[in-house]
Structures are given as structure tokens and as C-alpha cells.
Amino acid sequence: MENKRGKLFVYAGASGVGKGTIMKELLKKNESIKLSVSATTRSPREGEVDGREYFFVTKEKFKEMIAQEGFLEHAQYCDNFYGTPKAYVDEQLDKGYNVFLEIELQGAQNVLRLRPDAVSIFVMPPSVDELERRLRTRGTETEEAIIKRLSQAQVEMDNAKMYQYIIVNDDLDKAVEDVLEVVRKETC
Ligand code: 5GP
């Protein structure tokens, strides 16, 4: 990578909107992008690997990481805790990579306060009905968790105005291209 310090991207959107799917394509298509792997207290979903999707930790370990000031930000989302390990983010930025933080609203607000130079992107579903359909067909959450996530999704969407860029995930290829365009524009 070049010597220039990379850019930090806050990349948010409601649960089920397809942030993760877009992210996988971004990583394949642009090698300047690195995704920060968060720590979480939630249980792994089928197919998720420790250290790849998340660092899956106990509540005790999470508290220890807070006490050691290991997080750039951390938040509670539905019934679990999520946090961005600080060291990785700064290492990658120093190496010139553009680092994406795939985080929820509270974390996004905290990062934007701490790092006002971060670029913020919000991924919108084509409609609330479509979001619900996606969340249900994904089949990874209990009914109770789906209801909580849908209610949280509404809060996230009500705050979409705070982000610099809003990407509608109607068509995957188009959404990926739109995010790549933001990266090109912000890093050129
Ligand atoms: P999920 O359980 O669906 O993987 O994630 C739930 C929500 O937590 C998503 O909106 C996701 O982007 C967000 N999230 C994941 N990692 C972090 C993190 O490190 N910090 C914050 N604040 N939110 C996170």
C-alpha cells in the first residue's frame, strides 16, 4: 500500500438490509478495503467462524476488553454487546488501508464524534416490508429477536439523515458499485 494514511468508513444499516453481503463483494473488488472484525457476546450463527465474522467472547471477556480500553467504540444492540477493537483499526489505517466499521447506530454516533474525518455510509432497504422479508427468510433469529431487530431497524432508519451517503440495497451489484464509487470519491 501507499504511504498515505487510509480513510475510516462508518458503514451502517438495519439488520437484514444486506450490509454483510455487500461487504463481501467490496472486499473482493477493492483491495484497499479492510473490514474491522468486531468482538461480540452474541452466539455464532451457523457458518460463522471465530476471528472471521466476529471474535466471539463471553460477557466477562468483553468487560475486560472495555477495562483495558481496547475498544474504539462499543455498544449494546438488542441483548448483546458489540465492540470495535481499536488496535487493528489504527494499524490498518497507518498501513494506508481504508477500514470499514460495520456497526449499528450508537457505535456510528460515537465513532463520528471521536473521528470526525470518518466517512459515513448508511445502507437502506428498498422498503420496510422487504427488510422484514429478508430478516425472516434468513432464518437466523428467533421470532423474539426478529421483533426486536425490526423495531431497532426503524430507529436506525429514522436516523439515516446523519450519514453522508445513503445507499439503497435494491440491486446487489448496483449497491456494491455505489459504495465503491463513494470509496473512490473519498480517497482520490
Ligand atoms: P449482528 O448480530 O446481526 O451480526 O449485528 C447486529 C448489529 O450490530 C449490526 O447492525 C452490526 O452492524 C452491529 N455491529 C457489529 N459489530 C459492531 C461493533 O463493533 N460495534 C457496534 N456498535 N455495532 C456493531
Commentary on this structure:
There is one protein chain. It is globular, with a radius of gyration of 16 Å. With 188 residues, the protein is α/β, with parallel strands linked by helices. β5 (71-77) and β6 (80-85) form a beta hairpin. It contains seven helices and nine strands; from the N terminus they run βαβββαββαβαβααβα. The model has no long low-confidence stretch (mean pLDDT 96). α1 (19-29) crosses α7. It has a five-stranded parallel sheet, with helices on both faces. A four-stranded mixed sheet has the order 4-3-6-5. It starts with 7 loop residues before the first strand and ends with a helix. The structure holds guanosine-5'-monophosphate.
